[in-house]
Amino acid sequence: MTASAPLVEVTRGLSVESRHTGAVAIADVTGKLVFSLGDAERLTFPRSGVKALQGLPLVESGAAARFGLTEAELALACASHGGEPEHVATAAGALARLGLTADALECGAHWPMNDAAARALAASGAGPTTLHNNCSGKHAGFLCLACAMEVEPAGYIDAEHPVQREVTAALEAMTGTRLAEAPRGVDGCGIPTFAMPLAAVATAFARFGAGHGLGEHRAAAARTLREAAWSAPFQIGGSGRFDTEAMQLGAGRVFVKMGAEGVHVGAIPELGYGVAIKIDDGATRAAEAVMAAVLIRLLAPEGDFGEWLAGRVRRPLRNWAGVEVGEVRATELLAG
Amino acid sequence: MTASAPLVEVTRGLSVESRHTGAVAIADVTGKLVFSLGDAERLTFPRSGVKALQGLPLVESGAAARFGLTEAELALACASHGGEPEHVATAAGALARLGLTADALECGAHWPMNDAAARALAASGAGPTTLHNNCSGKHAGFLCLACAMEVEPAGYIDAEHPVQREVTAALEAMTGTRLAEAPRGVDGCGIPTFAMPLAAVATAFARFGAGHGLGEHRAAAARTLREAAWSAPFQIGGSGRFDTEAMQLGAGRVFVKMGAEGVHVGAIPELGYGVAIKIDDGATRAAEAVMAAVLIRLLAPEGDFGEWLAGRVRRPLRNWAGVEVGEVRATELLAG
């Protein structure tokens, strides 16, 4: 098996201008690969792709219920959001339930990822805070878990903090991996990230989506998070974002989430399948095209969802004057 | 020869998280390859990498001198600028010499590529104009040429307009290619872009840098444009940009210019070499690391320039809290 497969082409005129390679793993709840391209066992940092798995302890511990987190707040805990006003308000609201403010967040501040939101923030005369960090919802969830565990919240991003131990244990159980000796890095928001086989990530999302093999308690938590995302898909990403639009149109059918450096994961409950994608070079544009092609291959949805996916499998590129100059397209390898 | 070489790794912790492949061609003024990685003959859209070549007719026709373009305005004609206030003022100044305004530019409007400039513009209550387009200086140059040729400026971006015919003829002569049957696309700013062998682009920049084989008139024009870039390197890119910093520190020794989709080109007059780089996936971060490694390989400069290049061959990645989490680094294939 080759390590990498040609997954996406970027065209200009009638020529291919750029190419993206990578790997795709689609697994069932038992861990059996039902489809793959490239090396499905490659070690991959799943980055923000696994935020929903990192959110399981928040729900199954009873912390979310104890502090009365809303569906929007739970969706934001699984999000890489654009820092739009709705996201900022939701993060602030979750912290307020804990009696905390943005000062408690250890994710760092950055300008909103959504360009229009960044410009509007600048126009207001204000600057970015930790609430605008795309991970602020996940971090508010970590703080909620710390409060419910009655441990000192400060330092909650450290690998040895009780919160991260719970989060890592959930990742291990869901992926069926042992992470103690796994290659480790620091994620963009400061928490540990572990390299794991791509197929193990796919298996975890098969389980997350179908609830099989998790035990009643964890299966209920997974359902709560899925339903939160489907109820409040804007919180997961924001304006124009792939995951938000996919779950607005595919609510109940697909859970999808991007991660940095060309990661995309998905759960398809009705099939009991999980999907994990890694683009070698880290390109989001390519990961999205591949996810769209995978969802068409597996579900062939009709209507608005199907049309939207088709437009993401082959996405037109326009120049600054609005002229169509090429497209980003998944290769035929991904066709059903 | 393999089509692509492993050129850049992106690490997280001790692991390689993402990889970039591509091709490098280094040629002399005769077109002889002196070094290559990957397929040096691959057809490549050089995009904005060839703006300096597209600027030759502006100078050699006498148009720039007739309208009194400054060195800053000539540098901006070769630029992919950040839309910072200095760039906008320079573009407006060049148009004013022609009795024209931003309305004459056909490049389209976009928010400044420089994030801080975009936010400052939004904070001022204004929006982007064609002057903020990263190609506005090149387009002002096209208009200057049209005025000097005494042809109708409107439509100057069309392949059949007298301005584009001059520009294409200069590209053909510099690269030694015939572009009539070359794969063609529309560039981000609306003008034609032609796919050509990477080695031909490298040869063109060897000639551009050394002035050999161009005839006296064109050689003088190339020197004028090189010296404009070295005199006003901020205009070429802007704050924090690779090309600007490289020419601030390496003025007189290197001319470098990025292009969209992972293109980078360079001229090294003292060696008579030209460089052309294409990253398969289109990543700028990778093209910059490769160019830095190539310049160290060829010049091994000491002092500030050498230190700056070393910091670009291995560039630390920091997360939002400022913690170093990995690096972007050129592979050993590029070491001398």
Automatic annotation (TrEMBL), chains A, B:
InterPro entries, A to Z: Asparaginase_II (IPR010349)
Origin organism lineage: Bacteria, Pseudomonadati, Pseudomonadota, Alphaproteobacteria, Hyphomicrobiales
Listed name of the protein: L-asparaginase II
Organism whose genome encodes this protein: Hansschlegelia beijingensis
Pfam families according to UniProt: Asparaginase_II (PF06089)
